[in-house]
Each structure stands twice: as C-alpha cells, then as structure tokens.
Amino acid sequence: MAAAAAPGALGTLQASRARLVAACCAPLVPGWRLHRSLAGARVSPAMWARGWAPAAEGAALRRGYSSEVKSEDELRVRYLEEENRGIVVLGINRAYAKNSFSKNLVKMFSKAVDALKSDKKVRTVIVRSEVPGIFCAGADLKERVKMNPSEVGPFVSKIRAVINEMANLPVPTIAAIDGLALGGGLELALACDIRVAASSAKMGLVETKLAIIPGGGGTQRLPRAIGMSLAKELIFSARVLDGQEAKAVGLVSHVLEQNQEGDAAYRKALDLAREFLPQGPVAMRVAKLAINQGMETIPTKDRLEGLLAFKEKRSPRYKGE
To answer: Is 184 a catalytic residue?
Structure first.
C-alpha cells in the first residue's frame, strides 16, 4: 500500500505509519484493508478506527461504529421528505454501548420527543437502531456503576419519564426491532403503538436476573400487550424471546426474516407509516387518545359514586358525569 507523497520527514513518517498499520492489522482480519482515502493522510485515531473496509467494497467506506461517536450523534432525528413527508425516524446510535440509555441519550430523547409532540406536520414516528443487531440494551449499567447512590434514583426516573413521553406522543409510533431489545430497550418498544421485529431479534424484560424489576413501565405495558399471566411468566423467568416467539404471544404485530442489510423491521415499519399518511391527521390523534384511554380506568364521578354506594350498601345515584 503506497502512501500519498508528503514533503520531507513528515511524508516519510506518514508513509511508514500507513505501512505499519496495514502490516499489523491485515493478518488479523483477512480480506480487509485500509481505505485509500486514509493512506498517508493526517487522520485522527477515530478515523483510523473507522477506516477499515472489506476489499470487495471498493471505494466505499464501511459504516463506522467506533467509540468516537459524538454525543449529539447518539440519537439521529430524520424528517423524511417527498412521498414520506410527515414520517420522522428516531435512530439510536450508541454502538459501543449497545444503544443503552446514558444520561446524554435520555436527554436527547426527551428533547426530540418534546419537539415532536407539538409539531402538527408530524404524522408518524418510527423508533429504530442505526446499529446492526441491536435495538436497545436498556440502561447503561457501566455508567450507572460510576454514579453516586443519590444519582441512581433520578436517572431511572428520567428513563421512565422519557419512555412515558414516547407513549404519550399524539401520533402513531412504531418500534422497528431489528436486533436485541432488553430491559429498558423493550420498555421503549412497548411504549410505541406498534412493534415490528425481525425473526432474529431478541427481546425480554430481564431485570429480575439483576435482582431488580422493570422500571420503565414494563410491568404495566407488557400485561396490556400479552395478558397478565403470560407477562408475569416472562418477567419472573427473565425469558428472552426471538421474533417468531414474540409474534406468537402478541408482543409484536409483524415478524420478518432479516435481510442482508439488517433492516427488515425498519422497512416494514416504513411501509406501515406510509399506509397511515393518507388518513385524517386529527382523526388519527383522536383515535389514539380514545384507544389509550379506553385501556385504562377513567375516574368519572359516576364510577366514584358506584363505589361509594357499594360501600354504604345503598342504590347508586348516577348523574351521567
């Protein structure tokens, strides 16, 4: 591999560095090479980490997932255009931490959801991963270990709050699960209206293995999705399901064989979102609100009167309120 010419000793040093890296790394990863755009160039360690690409890819750089991802890139918000106008995609991008919830990611999610809930142009939101094989692995336990005991409670509360904010978005939301969704990752998916998964995906509320319980709404949303008895079984056992098993119990609406690109669930989610676009936006919001409220007990005055009458052993006096 030749290095680009550079004046004097600097050029010699850069050429030597390129040859040294190629010589050291090529035997470790057969068929991979340093992209020519990095040969002899003055590049940062992050660029070197992202620069290895399969030879078959030619001039194209391999998609980079180094630990150098900037904090603002941990959640990518994309507003689609043209025939997909109205669809917003939230892409989680913390490969080095398996897309786990860090303080920064929770902050970015909250900021994004806050902007979406007041944007009348948004029609459907898709939550996906930008990292192959991972949806979200829950809370960042490595970060949590470094916290003071007084920080842990507020951190968990913030994760719960952002998941609730996602559930309360007024527009349809779809979770595209193309990989691992554990703990808080599955709770994030449960907060979405619809879940789509690849058959190779793995998902479960596994907190009991750590001697804790799901803290992001999973104890409430999982029973609503699959029934109380089965939800208890899965939480008690910390069982992990694949896509087909999740479809069989009603945890996901659609399951697909994973494709070569690793985004089969996302593509199905996009198809569903396109199907929603022609419908009346106000009707969609009202329908979601009606369905969500219908799944919960509404605290009407008549309901309270009925309970009071039962307690006092008398006939209730309902007022239609």
So the answer is: yes
